[in-house]
Fold these 2 entries.
Entry 1:
Amino acid sequence: MGITWNEIKEGQEIPVLKKNCSTQQLVQWAAGSGDFYQIHYDKDFAISTGLPGLIVHGALKNAFLGQLVHDWVGRNGRIKQYGCSYRGMDYPNEDILCKGVVKRRYEENGKKLVALEVWTENKEGARTTPGSAIVEFTN
Amino acid sequence: MAESAAEESLITDEMRATIGDKSEPSTLEVDKLQIRLFARAVGHVDPIYFDEEEAKKAGFRSLPCPPGYLGTAIFDPRTSDATFGGRRGGAPPPEPRRPLNRILNGGNEFEYLGDICAGDVLTAVSYVSDIQERKASLGEMLITQSKTEYRNQNNELVAVATGTGIRY
C-alpha cells in the first residue's frame, strides 16, 4: 500500500480523508490524548465559556492530517515532519475534509523527500487548520 | 503618530530572559494500550497501530507511535494536573506588561528523527524558543513558541515538538 517516489509529481493532490466527529469520537480522543478539557464533551460547560457548543480538539485535527499523510505514504516512507496552525474552530457532526498537495519533490543528501501542503476544510470550504509535512521515501 | 507609554512592548526583559531555559525533565511512557487508544480515537485504519505482527512486518520493533503521539506523561494525583495530566505547579512564567486573560493553542508541529515504538520510555525537556507580539483583530496578542525535545532510553534524540501558544 501507499504511493511510490516514482509516482509522485509536484502539484499532485493526495486523496481526501473525510472526517465527521461524533461526540463519542471526541471522548475517545480525550482518553487517547489525555486532554480532558470539558469544552470538547460537556456542552453546558462549553456554552458557559462563551462557545456556541462543543468544539473539536485542535490536536485531533492535527492527528487527522498525520493520518492523511500516513495513509498516502503507506509502507513506502516515513513522515519526517508535519504540523499545522489552528485558525478556526470545527464542530462535531460536521464534515472535516483533510486535503493535501505535493509542493516539492526533491533529493537532499541522498534522501528522497517530498514537501506537502496539508489542511483541513470545513463545510464552507474555509481552511481551519493549514499545515505542512515532509516525507522521506524509501520506495 | 506618537507612541504613548501604553505602546511599550508587552514583552518584559524578565520574559525575554526565560527564552532557552530548560525545564526539569519529565518521563513519558509509550505503550501498546495507549497507542491503540490514540489510533482508534483518530480513526486510523492501518493495522500497524493495532497488531504487533503487522508492525514488525513493516519494520518496527513493536506498535509505532501514530503521528502526533509522543508518549503519555505518568499520571500521579499528587503532582499531575487533573484536566491535562501534565505536571502541575512550578513557578508560573513571568507576566506580560499588560494583562492578557485568554489563551489559544496556535499550532503544533512534530519533527521525527527516529522511530518511536511501544516499550520506549521518553524523557522530555521543554523550553521557550521565541516570544513575539502582534496587534490583530483580537487586540494585543502575545505569541510564545515552545520546543520540547524527546530522547529515548538510549539517549537518542527521536523527536522535537514545537507548540505555539497565543495569549490575548
Note: The beta strands of chain A are 13-20, 77-85, 95-108, 111-121, 127-137.
Entry 2:
Amino acid sequence: MHRHEVHALKPIVRLLVALIVGAAVGLIYGWVVQPVRYVDTAPGSLRADYRTDYVLMVAQAYTSEQDLPTAQVRLASLGPQAPADLVTAALTYAVDHGFTRADLETLNQLAVALRSAAPAAEIQAP
Amino acid sequence: MKAFLALLLAFAIGLGGGLVYAWGLNPVSYTDTSPASLREDFRADYLTLIAVAYDASGDLPRARARLAQFAYAEPGPILAALAQQRLGQGWPESQARALARLAADLASPAAVASAPTSTPAVAGTATPTRTATLVPSPAPTRTPTSTPGAPFRLLAQDPVCDPDLGQPLLQVEVVDAAGQPVAGSEVRVVWDTGQDHFFTGLKPDLGIGYGDFRLTPGVAYSVQLVDSDQPVTGLTAGECLAEDGTRYPGSWLLRFQQPSR
C-alpha cells in the first residue's frame, strides 16, 4: 500500500519540479538575461539624484534667464506635482546629500520665485 | 513518452508563468531611470538644459559630467547638430547659442587640456550632482563671446575656389580682439526672396569661430554679422575653373574681428 502511494506521487512531484524549474528559468531569463528594457522614458521617472540635478539645471538656467514660465514648463516634465514642491524636494535632497552652498542658493532662488509667483494655470506635462 | 511530454508541458507552463511575472506582473523597475534612457525629444530637452545651465554657470567640468551620463564618445558634434536642429525648428535662439557655445567649449584646446583623462565619476551609477560638486571649481574656461557695444569689423572678404567643398558656401570666421575665435555669433543672410541666419561654432571641427551657409548660384546675398554694423552686400557665388577645365560655383570667406577698445 505504502509503496503504491509513493509510486503514484512520483509523477506529480516530477511535474512540480519541472514547473518550478521552468518558472525559475523564466524568471532568470526575464529579469537577468533579457529584462524589460525601458527606453523612451520621461524625466518623471528619473532617479532621485538625476531629478535633483535636473531641477538644479532648471534653477541655474533661471538665474540667467529670469524666465519663470520657462522654468515652470521645464519642471512640469518631472510630473504633475506643483513646481514649487519639486524644487523643495530637490532642496531637501541637496541638503541631505551635501550639495555646495552655491547650489543650495541657486535652488532656493527658484523656490522663492515660484512661491512668490501668483498661482498660474496648471501646466500639463508633455 | 507520455510522462516526458507531461514534464515538458509543465516546464513550458512554468516558463510561461515566469516570463509573465518577470515581464508583465513585476518587471524590472520603471522608476529610477537614468537620463540615457530618455525619449529622444526629452533627451534633446535635457541636453539643451545642460547647455543652458552651463551658459549660466560656466562650469565646464559639471557640464562634462552631466553629458557623460549619455556616454557619447563625442558630445560636441551632437550638441552642434542639436543647435542647428533647434534653430531650424524655431526654438529660442538663446538655446541654440548655448548649445553651440558648449559644443565649442568642449572642443576648445583649453577645455580639452583641462578635461579629465578618465571618464567622469558621474558616469554609470554615481550620483551626478554630488560627484560634480566634488570637482574643484577653477575659473571657468569659456570660449570668447562677442561683447555688446563693440561692433565687429569686416577684416577680409575673399573668394574661395575649392572643389572639395562640393557646393558654394558663404563661410564666416569671427575672432575677438585677441584673434581668438568666437562661437555663437549670429550671421544674418538676406536675399531677394528670403532670409535666414546661422551661428558660428556649430561645426567645431572646422573651428569654433566658423560658420557657413549654402549659396544658390545666381542669387545675390546681403550678409551681416549681428554684432557688426557693416553689412556685406551683393555677394554671389562666383565662377571657378577646375583643373580639368570645368567650371563650378565658388564660395566666399568673410572674416570679422572685434576691434580693440
Note: The radius of gyration of chain B is 26 Å.
